[in-house]
Here is the input.
Amino acid sequence: MTDPIADMLTRIRNAHMALHKEVCVPRSKMKEAIAAILQQEGYVNDVKVDDADIKIALKYHKGTPGIAGLKRISKPGRRVYVGSLEIPRVQNGLGICILSTSHGVMEGVRAHESKVGGELLCEIW
Here is the structure.
């Protein structure tokens, strides 16, 4: 597998389309941080970390998924870096972007408030 973060996002997208209650992804520190941000921002219900897996309990509102869309921005073939003033607004403020910064993986608004930029990993709305 060349892009484990894209694999994680695809598993979440496919599980939502199939109306699954939870999805299981292989564990890494980066994926743990992304899953924790999804939980903090209210896109998923719960995140449980085992030795080898991360179990993400998906959220639904009257049968519709809590996550309407996921998009991987920075890919192994093309890395996308942004400064603190260049962090994009996702869906006119209705979504979030996740960055990998020198202070760790964080959500776009927090990165802007901390005046730190980094690699733009993905957008979620």
